[in-house]
Specification:
alpha/beta, 7 helices
């Protein structure tokens, strides 16, 4: 048994979720001498559905965390965001940009948190908060975690930070969220096509009426691989029996439409070699229907200023 797979039973701060927000939080607090336990429901490195674009504020954050050079050693530098409108007009916006799959980025950030002194354990899933007191005034004093290999484990902490992403289950179990539905949905895949290297050099984001009020993107990775996907904001605006449900949109149909209206997307989908599977994911872009704290607990996440470059 790997001792690091077991969480500490008590700590100053327990951070649930080892994505960029959780690992950054764990690293920063460990740097300042706090006893930090970081847990995630997956072993690392692990895949994460994302556009993989690193925009200027991400570069600034990575510099503050001391990992920018490590990230850029394996990332694909990019000079522009290419915004392409429904009639084909294009605006290139320059900036400090890059592309790095989240499997690599998140692992770099998690390892940096460990180097700072945080203790990492996985795979552990958040089950429920441990409470002291009754009702709304109850204080969170830890969490109950669950692992297929080790069963349940209670970890006591002075503070708990939830950094569990767009899926609302943990937020709802912690009493922070009443909104089940996401802000949007997206579908992403990786395609190998060396022939497009040098042709797609920007973070290309495309809007078109055939994309059903959504958008498509192509972001160049290293070694002739491209991150291609489609997304739909406000995907759950349809009301059925008083409940918000997803619009009648098929993301794979949107992806096929993207290939028809944007030549590089068509070339990738027709002639490229798909690496792995296309995967979908919910997007959560606002705090509507949620709060970010209660006594003893704080929720945090990566800021989503541009959905296309998330």
């Amino acid at each position: 048994m790997n001792p690091s797979s077991l969480p500490l039973t008590s700590c100053d701060v327990l951070v649930v979720g080892a994505g960029p927000a959780g690992s950054a939080c764990a690293q920063w607090l460990a740097r300042h001498g706090l006893k930090v336990q970081l847990v995630d429901q997956h072993d690392f490195p692990r895949d994460k559905v994302c556009g993989d674009g690193l925009i200027p504020d991400a570069h600034h954050a990575l510099q503050r965390l001391g990992v920018h050079a490590e990230v850029m050693a394996v990332a694909q530098p990019v000079a522009h965001v290419g915004c392409i409108g429904p009639r084909g007009g294009r605006v290139d916006v320059p900036g400090q940009l890059a592309v790095l799959p989240r499997r690599q980025l998140d692992d770099i950030l998690k390892r940096a948190a460990e180097r700072a002194g945080a203790h990492f354990s996985a795979p552990w899933r958040f089950e429920s908060p441990l409470l002291q007191g009754d009702g709304d005034a109850a204080t969170v004093v830890g969490v109950r975690l669950k692992s297929a290999a080790h069963g349940e484990c209670d970890v006591h902490a002075k503070w708990v930070v939830l950094a569990t992403g767009a899926v609302p289950k943990a937020l709802m179990a912690a009493g922070l969220s009443t909104r089940h539905t996401p802000s949007g949905v997206a579908l992403r895949g990786y395609v190998h096509h060396p022939g497009l290297v040098g042709q797609v050099k920007a973070l290309e984001v495309v809007w078109h009426r055939q994309l059903r009020k959504g958008y498509g993107w192509i972001f160049p990775c290293r070694d002739g691989v491209f991150n291609i996907g489609v997304g739909l904001a406000h995907s759950h605006g349809k009301q059925v029996a008083g409940r918000a449900t997803m619009e009648d949109v098929n993301l794979r149909d949107m992806l096929a439409a993207f290939g028809r209206i944007h030549a590089p997307a068509g070339a990738l989908l027709k002639d490229g070699q798909v690496v792995g599977d296309f995967k979908g994911a919910p997007l959560r872009c606002s705090l509507e229907g949620a709060r970010f704290s209660r006594p003893g607990l704080l929720a945090t996440a990566v800021a989503r200023r541009r959905r296309s470059a998330r």
